[in-house]
Write a structure and sequence with these properties.
about 400 residues, about 45% strand, about 5% helix, mainly beta
């Protein structure tokens, strides 16, 4: 528990404690974890093979990850599930084509919150598809939907799946013995729908007479949608883990790369707290709720240094501080670019909400305050209170904190 999974520069998967202790190699030539199977112990390091995008199961006992092997006959892409202590693994899916869903991303992996089931996106010969593996060893994953672009969220108890596919919003329950599928159109410019932590409400963006707005609707009755605030050109939204707020990033200027406002709104629209207003000239790229719901981390681009700034804010907007400047790894760049999707499946926050983990290289501010830094992408643990400097765990290109 309370472990970090990371990919090293050679494409191997490790877990490690937040202080750099308890390191376990799960793939590659040194699979020597206690209790590891003979197969995992004898894995040979091959330069034509790598793992990427590890994703923790809800109970943190397993990791799902993409594996890529380049052969003379072609590239083999599979999805593997590994025991997080021994490294023993099972292949649950093999791509029927060597396509990626995004640059450097063979699959998008998202465990259902309960029942040890794995959902994932994969490129197929028919196009992008969503698959589900029910956790049964030896049983193949099954396709549950197709379409692009697609963004989705599971409810906390996995009885509802909200999908935004093209301009269609879909509510479904693929894990039920009595499945249903409800859909409606939305004209809003956003990606991932947001289900309340209690699973009763879904928030989304739709067109209004004046432009666009943030809407909430009971999942049990989609006809009772209510607009709770007006929005600009493009938005991203996410519920706090305790359900008290919806964080909304918004663009006041059409077709810009970044968001320039970040607010917290109560589910009834009655209370709005502005964390970043458009007159501050902020370039907000991504934001992530702490598991404790008392603060957010957001990432802004410094237009002068072209580096990213990790900023922490309490929910009252007081005491905002910059805790780290860095240049993201290619994988972290992808995660930040689609943060409102990855926030549901890949946690940068520690379970206690006191630390974050990122992969990249130190920025100029960090160099000036901490001296020389190793070259290349590294794994850094950050103190969310800003009282301690970044902790360097070693070379790595992607790091994800366990849920427990």
């Amino acid at each position: 528990m309370n472990q970090i999974a990371y990919i090293d520069p050679n494409g191997d998967l490790f877990t490690v404690g937040p202080d750099g202790d308890q390191q376990v190699r799960l793939t590659g030539s040194l699979g020597i974890a206690k209790g590891a199977s003979k197969e995992s112990q004898l894995q040979l390091l091959r330069m034509n093979e790598y793992y990427t995008w590890p994703t923790w199961s809800p109970d943190s006992t397993k990791l799902a990850t993409s594996q890529v092997i380049a052969r003379e006959s072609g590239t083999e892409i599979t999805l593997q599930v590994l025991d997080s202590q021994t490294g023993s693994k099972e292949m649950i899916y093999e791509n029927d084509r060597a396509g990626l869903i995004a640059d450097g991303t063979p699959h998008y992996i998202y465990w259902a919150p309960i029942k040890n089931q794995v959902s994932f996106l994969a490129a197929t010969v028919e196009g992008l598809a969503i698959f589900l593996w029910d956790g049964t060893s030896g049983k193949p994953a099954v396709r549950i939907d197709s379409g692009a672009p697609v963004f989705y969220q599971w409810s906390r108890n996995a009885d509802v799946l909200a999908l935004h596919m093209g301009s269609e919003m879909i509510l479904a329950n693929p894990l039920s013995l009595n499945p249903y599928r409800k859909s409606f159109q939305t004209g809003g410019n956003f990606r991932t729908p947001a289900i309340s932590p209690d699973g009763s409400i879904v928030a989304y963006v739709d067109r209004t007479v004046e432009g666009t707005g943030l809407y909430v609707t009971p999942i049990a009755d989609l006809s009772k949608a209510e607009k709770i605030m007006d929005l600009g050109w493009s938005s991203a939204l996410m519920w706090s883990p305790d359900g008290s707020h919806i964080a909304v990033a918004d663009q006041s200027i059409a077709r810009t790369q970044f968001y320039d406002t970040l607010v917290l709104v109560s589910p009834d629209g009655g209370v709005v707290t502005s964390l970043v207003s458009e007159n501050r000239g902020a370039n907000i790229w991504a934001f992530f709720w702490a598991p404790t719901s008392d603060k957010l981390a957001w990432v802004s681009e410094n237009g002068v240094s072209q580096e990213l700034e990790v900023i922490i804010s309490p929910t009252d907007g007081l005491g905002i501080k910059n805790i780290f400047d860095f240049r993201p790894s290619a994988e972290t760049f992808i995660m930040m670019s689609f943060f409102d999707q990855y926030a549901h499946s890949h946690s940068l926050w520690s379970p206690d909400g006191q630390s974050l983990v990122v992969a990249g290289s130190k920025g100029e501010v960090a160099r000036r305050s901490n001296g020389r830094t190793p070259t290349g992408d590294r794994i850094y643990v950050l103190d969310s209170n800003g009282l301690e400097g970044p902790r360097d765990l070693g070379a790595g290109v992607l790091a994800i904190w366990s849920w427990n």
